[in-house]
Amino acid sequence: AKLFAPCVLFIDEIDLLGLQRDKDKTLLADFLAAMSGIADKDPKKQVIVIGTTNKPENMDEALRQSGRLALEIRFKYPTLKERIDYITKRLEKFAIDPEIFEIDINKLARETHGKSFEDIKLMLDMAFIHIGIKGSVISQNILEWSLDAQLRRIVDIDSKEVAQDEQQLLSAHYAGQVLCHLLLDLDEKIAKVTTRQVVTKVKEEIGL
């Protein structure tokens, strides 16, 4: 990067490189040594290093010292109002009037809490692809189906056959959890309960 200065060096998912003293001390030391001197006073020789991560707690303290990756810029997920505005504009782009199609944008925005604009875009795109294949029109049901499939990762068709008595046990178990949640009056509200399979996230591991 120094040979191509001035330039910007962008490192995506920097926490996965193993730059921790309990992982690979030599790699960490080499990286820190390489960063020394990049903040040259001559603007024509400067290298700006930007690292992104979803797990800042995994960043070694040495990387976060002054002269290294000291400046931290956090990006927050869109607020409820921002999600409402985004969904509204996306529907307007396809000339869809929410009132005519009976689409509850507020409900969709509430249930996409903690999701990015890209997540919401994928949800809407999946719904539009679905109606194109089926030759139907957009509806609240299709949008909520897409939300379940794309964002909640609920499997639409269960490949596993579950006996009736097991389904009843599962239903009673989840109903009990919901009842406790409602009686405790927690801040987080329940949007959906299902006994269907859900695709779980793959745990990230650093292999060194």
Report on this structure.
The chain has 208 residues and is mainly α. It has 6 helices and 2 strands, in the order βαβααααα. A two-stranded parallel sheet has the order 1-2. Helix 1 links the parallel strand 1 and strand 2. The longest helix has 21 residues. 10% of the residues are buried.
List its traits.
2 strands; 208 residues; 6 helices; two-stranded parallel ribbon; mainly alpha
Strand content: under 5%
Helicity, as a percent range: 25-40%
Going across the major beta sheet, what is the strand order?
Answer: 1-2
Distance between the termini: 25 Å
Topology (elements, then pairings):
Blueprint: E1 7-11, H1 25-35, E2 47-51, H2 80-93, H3 105-110, H4 117-134, H5 140-151, H6 164-184
Parallel strand pairs: 1-2
Task: Give a concise summary.
39% of the residues lie in helices and 5% in strands.
